[in-house]
Amino acid sequence: MTPVYAIDKTLTLGDLRFHYxxxxxxxxxxxxxxxxxxxxxxxxxxxxxxVESARVIAPDLRGHGQSDKPDGDYSFQTIGGDVRRxxxxxxxxxxxxxxxxWGARVGxxxxxxxxxxxxxxxxxxxxxxxxxxxxWEETRQRLSPPHLDGRxxxxxxxxxxxxxxxGLITPVVEAAILANFEIxxxxxxxxxxxxxxxxxxxxxxxxxxxxxxxxxxxxxxxILPTRREGKDAPPLLARKELCVRLAGERIADVEIVxxxxxxxxxxLQRPHAVAAYIRRxxxxxxxxxxxx
Length: 292
What we know:
Elements: E1 7-13, E2 16-24, E3 28-33, E4 54-59, H1 76-89, E5 96-100, H2 102-113, E6 120-124, H3 136-143, H4 153-163, H5 171-178, E7 181-183, E8 189-191, H6 195-207, H7 210-214, E9 221-224, E10 226-227, H8 234-250, E11 254-256, E12 259-260, H9 266-269, H10 271-291
Parallel strand pairs: 3-4, 3-5, 5-6, 6-9, 9-11, 10-12
Antiparallel strand pairs: 1-2, 2-4, 7-8
Helix pairs in contact: 1-2, 3-6
């Protein structure tokens, strides 16, 4: 297979500049949305596997990556509004939206509030657990981002290698992870998403009521949750499995496929499996139904 490379592009919407990666490709439009504090580079291993059957684009959302970081609102309405304007500007009509982690919640919001603009939704280990079962204080304490600002690249590299499954951290995966940070002349890392904005997004996630959204989704949905039996904390895994079952009961047209022995960052660990499920969803649930 001939190597497929992305072209880095920018898009100006109003007074904001957005960065996105464009793999081109042939077929149905697919929009890949990254998670909180991540970037479009999370899709660097998955996107090239889609181009023979899809037109593939992955943006850096507001506050993230190389996109602008305005001081203001980071609600789902604002982020979703950015995505809608991107779709119009890029002439992406009724894409399949694939969201990882927080990106799945953005995709869910878009599918519910603008159903005419989404042909299908794939939620990759996101849009599953309703944070509202905890108080905001507990959510803030548990899910605040780690303090990484100022650590050396070597220190951070050693940390991610220690915490990752053996063999995961290849040069390409390491580059995708390091894309979440700016690196200064002293070789120290600084998160691209400012901490204050991270917390605004976390607050919006805490306020989002997933069950209410599930019941309003009209398009076909594929949920790809991850789990690692014997490695995930049992209480958290039990909670996750319960929430996935609830999503399956409330979404009208849904398929659930567990990615076994898989970490949260499935696009980096299992790119071939993730891409295969996206291609199958496109061919069986979107393109075929449109033709019929």
